[in-house]
């Protein structure tokens, strides 16, 4: 039986070779965060989150994508659709798989819209009917933790909990 990761990769490869994408000169590449790079990756995501937390001028869409990304820190199976260095959509791989499964339903929009817009439209439709649970562990930085935070996926006010973590290395 195919794992979720294998299914994701397989579907991504299938659509990457589709004639519509070839004609539109759209290239899809899969990048994975190696286990050896995971800690520094998540440290950078946390830093971006904390930097944007109290900046009123920070782009709301970027704040939400960073918040979503940080909520996936303790989960398996997440993905980012980006165009160059700009993150367009951040989500669970299970939702991305559903979008890829529906590719034949939305691929004809790629001539009228760009790939990201067509993908995001299908993604949004799926999110309307999918359930989710969003957990966000925020490292406490004196006075910087917000009192209220909206869910990056559905925009409802999140319940607030405090998480503690102990990491011990060696003997």
From TrEMBL:
Record field: transmembrane: none
One annotated GO biological process: phloem development
One Pfam family hit: SEO_C
Residue ranges occupied by any Sieve element occlusion C-terminal domain in the UniProt entry: 36-167
Entry-linked InterPro entries: SEO_C, SEOA
PANTHER family the record matches: PROTEIN SIEVE ELEMENT OCCLUSION B-LIKE (PTHR33232)
Name of protein: Sieve element occlusion C-terminal domain-containing protein
Organism: Ficus carica (Common fig)
Lineage summary: Eukaryota, Viridiplantae, Streptophyta, Embryophyta, Tracheophyta
């Amino acid at each position: 039986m195919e794992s979720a990761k294998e299914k994701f990769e397989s579907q991504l490869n299938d659509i990457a070779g589709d004639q519509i994408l070839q004609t539109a000169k759209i290239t899809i590449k899969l990048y994975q965060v190696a286990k050896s790079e995971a800690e520094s990756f998540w440290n950078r995501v946390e830093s971006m989150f904390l930097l944007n937390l109290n900046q009123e001028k920070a782009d709301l869409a970027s704040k939400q994508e960073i918040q979503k990304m940080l909520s996936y820190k303790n989960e398996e199976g997440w993905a980012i659709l980006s165009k160059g260095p700009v993150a367009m959509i951040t989500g669970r791989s299970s939702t991305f798989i559903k979008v890829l499964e529906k590719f034949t339903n939305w691929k004809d929009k790629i001539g009228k819209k760009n790939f990201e817009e067509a993908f995001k439209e299908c993604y949004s439709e799926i999110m309307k009917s999918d359930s989710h649970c969003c957990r966000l562990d925020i490292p406490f930085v004196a006075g910087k933790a917000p009192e209220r935070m909206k869910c990056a996926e559905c925009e409802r006010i999140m319940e607030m909990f405090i998480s503690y973590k102990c990491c011990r290395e060696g003997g």
